[in-house]
Specification:
heterodimer; A: 469 residues; alpha+beta; Beta-Lactamase; 3 domains; 5-stranded antiparallel β-sheet; B: 226 residues; alpha/beta; Arc Repressor Mutant, subunit A; 2 domains; 5-stranded parallel β-sheet
Amino acid sequence: MTTPGPPPAQRGPGLRRRVTVAFALGALVLSACLATLTYELARSYLLRQRESTLVSQAYVNARAVRQTLSGPDPDIPDLLSAVETPNLSRALLSYQGRWFGASVAVGQESLPEGLRREVLDGVPARQRFALDGRRQLSVGVPIVSVGAAYFEVFDMEVLASTLRVLGNSLVAGAAITTLLGAAVGRWASGRLMQPLANASQAAAAVAAGRFDVRLDTSPDADLAVLADSFNSMTDALGERIEREARFASSVSHELRSPLTTLSASVEVLQARRHEMGERAQRALDLLRSDLRRFERLVGDLVEISRLDAGAEQLELEVLAVGTLVEQSLQRSMRPNVAVEVRPRARGVEVRADRRRMGRVLANLVENAETHGRGVARVTVDREGWAARIGVEDRGPGVAPEERQRIFERFVRGEEGRHRGEGDGSGLGLSLVSEHVRLHGGRTWVEEAPGGGARFVVELPVARGGPTVP
Amino acid sequence: MSAILVVEDDGRIRASLRLALEEEGHAVDEAGSGEEGLECLVRQAPDIVVLDLMLPGLDGFEVCRRIRRTSDVPVIVVTARSDSHDVVAGLEAGADDYVTKPFVPKELSARIRALLRRSGTRGPSAPRTLSFGDVGIQPDGGVVRKAGEELTLTRTEFRLLCELAAHPGRVLSRERLLEQVWGYDYFGDGRLVDVHIRRLRTKVESDPASPTLIVTVRGLGYKLVP
């Protein structure tokens, strides 16, 4: 009995996964922002610091150049190579309309036009530019007193590689933070989900009929609400089921007492049967046979209401299925029914309630006798990890469209064609399937090889199943 | 002809049972409550008691326990359901057998006959004492002694012990014990045997929780270890 629901594939990602992803994303955004900010701050600070260092260095050097140029007969290339350039800067000098450079790589044409003009016009300036794809900073100092202009070109790429290392570390840091975020999210959601998982376990236990399960009332106010309402629901449910079971039990008692009186009285009448007239005897026969039917009906009704209430408890034993079937048939006083145990079913054991399985077999045999012209044979077989008990009759079989319905309550083969005959209560087969379901097995009806109906009871094998190669 | 005491609060059931049992040739006394039943027991000394478990006031379990304090008269309890705990509880309170409402009086009288038959003759007739450790059984005298002290066993417990003692070391199945002790030649309830074995153990075993004399052979039955 499954209600059609959405296939699992249509379900969105689980709460836990969503929390984990959210945590990871949060950590990513946060760490990316922090990294960007850190990078920018570090970069501008480093640049500014480097620039001011370079500018002051350029001024110091320019002063030295001016001194030399003020002197007699300055050796300019010598001067330029003597200038201290600790920061890998290259010096350029414009003196009396000529350019001198300390490095071949950097000539006056390397300098940006605007900077050159500005400095030659007597204004100190600096500018960042790119040379051969490398970032450079140029500082120009006009030395007006001697009509010269001193430039220094610094390669800023050294700084760039420092910044690259910093940037890489920050990216790595952000990645680690993201992973940590995901881990924290997973852990936290796991902790968060624990009460939910507990609740779901408890709910499953309740669904399975255990009404004594309780959720721990946690000190956490948020969770306590869940636990409290769950517990009160279970209480209410258990109470209700108990009430129903009590009702079933009182119904049984109330109905059984008058039935006891009736059957005792009818038996006295039966003992005095010879004193009665023929019509009274016929009436007595009718009374007896319907009394038997009434007893059956009450018994079955009480049994099924107890099953509905979930009040039934199995007394499980591990039993050889062949022996179980034979004993059950003997108990229902049908020792003459032929039982065929297939070789592969020999020694197969099931976990079963002896008394209940006795009822199952008795009901099936009775069903065969009432509706199927008697039992043809009873078979015991094994199919993988399932033991199968088949009860075959000599009747016309069950039409395919009836095969499900026949296990419903008060449904008889071919809609009550046999009503009024036999002692059937109309509950026998549904009791069979309910009892078998309690054992974790299933029941169905199929066509027997001889054309009759074969009712099959399948029980999970407890021991002696197929040997694993 | 035997004297049967029917303790049952439902007057109609009492009346119909009296009719049916008298039809079988028994003498029937009726009691409408547990208290009345206990009085009758003293006054009439019946051969057998049929006791409804659901009685107003003093319930059937308590009545059964009180009967057992003074008497080993066979008791058949009447329960409303065969699958309830009532059956086991009733047997544990000291009942010898049970029937489930609604029962056919024929079924009841069959059980009455079986109980009476076995309370008439006691075990195999060889004048001897069987000894197992500190437990001595005299099947004829109906006496069981443990360490020299006489034990009070009900007739059913005694029969059960004798049956086990007659085949020391052999595993006896529940079905066989039911047949031999209760006289059922058809399916009975294995719980009858289980509960009586349990009760028997509390009397003859030194430590009923780990029995050494009457041991369970899982899936097969019980045996008495010589």
